[in-house]
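User: Show me an example of a complex going from sequences to structure tokens.

Assistant: Sure. Here are the input components:
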Amino acid sequence: MAAERRVLIVDDDPAFRRLCKEYLSEAGAAPCQVAEVSTAGDAVARCGEQQFDCLLIDYNLPDGSGTELLPKLRQHCGPLTPMIIMTGVGTEQIAIEALHCGAADYIPKDRVSGTSLTRAVRNSIEKASLQHSINDRNERLERVNDELRRKNDQIQRFYHCVSHEIKTPLTAAREFISLVSDGVFGSISAEQSEALNYALQGCDQIADHFNELIEVSRLETGKLRLEKSKVTIEQLVTLSVASVSSAIEDKRIILQQDLDDDLPPIYVDSSRIAQVLSNLLSNAHKFTDEGGMITVFAYCSADRRSVVIGVHDTGCGIAARDLPHIFDRLYQAEAHADSMSSRGLGLGLSIAREIVTLHGGEVQVESESGRGSVFRVVLPIEGAAGRSRRRAGTVSATGAA
Amino acid sequence: MKTILLVEDDKKIALAMATRLKSSGFSVVVAHDVPTGLMLARKHDPDVALLDIGLPGGDGFRIAECLRDQVCLRRVPVVFVTASKKDGLRERAVKAGASAFLEKPFKASALLAAIDSALLAMNAWQAPRTA
């Protein structure tokens, strides 16, 4: 059974008050507990004493208008209690004013009937109840949000600490090994030199893996900030090739470049994009045999709105069943028969895709088992013109308000 | 012989770096915190200041600021070293007037290259002064 609805009628006409009371008590209507007062002052006092589910207020009160009364009542009733203004004939203008002042509804007095009155009261109470649920849910969501944000910050601080605690001894270890290896503490044998080189490579791998881990943690917690600058495609390709060219040469793989002539510069975080390209190149190196070929190419899209930088290899390709998963974190395809190269953490492609997505671009791949692969990094051309066009767009949107 | 002021709180790293720099022909003075670093800077008038960013009693940026505030030390070029990959750190270093920026762990070649570029910066400054 529905709980009784507590209604307050504020009207100086006792006959009208009696009529409303009768309508609200009609059989079939939800049970109502109806109170009545005849002035604005009394209404304020009554609301101070008791809570109501709905207020019916006459516009023409002896001590003030119904709409003036609304804000005074709000102080006692709270923001959600529905207040319905009842107006005399020909005062639709006042009705609009009432709605602006926070009335839930208005009823012209000549349209008050059993059904219209009970419907208005019922609807306004239901709407208020819905709003209440929404507010509750919003409050809960905000609390959860705050908690998540706090946890996020905690995780970030944790990673920051761990980062320092790992890199500090690693730095010392690497440098001491390097000092011995360079003969600073006395000459060393060829065997000792080789052994120390392996140790140094180990240190470098630890550092690289660890940096990848930190990068992922920042992408995860949304704390990564791109440091963008204008850079040419040539510069990007040079940067990225630098770190892998000797490994590629050592494996006797041909590395060539095929960059279009009319490539515009782009506005990106150059060290991160170079990292993305290096990652693609080192994957190409990993999965291509001796005597194979790796090509870095770049061209403008047909609509001249993006630049595509790609890496093509003649390696073993990617099996169809693996293709949908290669960007997943920690996914590693069957290790190639090159046991000397590090397997890595399997984070590279996932980081690459996130970085490119953050730039508003995308990474595409085409590959077939046994027939090599092509990875394409599509990046938007955000020239100075593009940026100022966007800024102008924002101004006009608010200006039009 | 050029003098390098090294301010690094981890003693092992400080020893490794000092050994490397000495074996490359530099004279090195070492401090493990900000106050000692500033004291040594005033005492030795170094040719380069190699500053770890995370230090007890302040950070490397603070030392760089103090150096700039003292007329006789204003032109000492500064190289910042850090284990942190926080975004914006490099930007901040450039704003603080760094000649170079080094990330840990680093290769010896990177360390020496950073010192070289800092020395070049210093030389560029001294040139106009010799009228």
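The lines above are the inputs; the final block is the predicted structure for all two components together. Chain B has five helices and seven strands.
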